[in-house]
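Protein folds are increasingly written down as discrete tokens. With that in mind, we are printing a sequence and the tokens encoding its fold.
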Amino acid sequence: MLCKLHYTILVTGPAYGNQKSSSALQFTQALLNYGHYINAIFFYQDGVYNANSFTIYPSNEINLVQAWQKLAIEHQLSLHVCISAALRRGITNAEQALQLNLSGHNLPPAFNLSSLITLGESILTCDRFIQF
């Protein structure tokens, strides 16, 4: 009998340029297929680029931004994006864009700007913490 565990996933790699994000996505899908639970998925450092809706994708490649959103919607998962890392990299939601007097925003609806406190709380309540 397989024990069902609670996982927190940390993604530190961009949507493209290395395997971190796609590996994290595939790993998370496998966990869900085996019946495990995902406490949260947190995007940090260059991982916040996975939450940039302005990224253009070649037609022969997987659109990782859409893939993360689809996974989150299908399984009711929380996609957290480090607010400090996101703002440094030009990724913002409508509220932050208004506060900072920016001309637009590019954070997709399935993603939420969060603090490192959110990551810490999720780590404290999970059985396994996996970083990509």
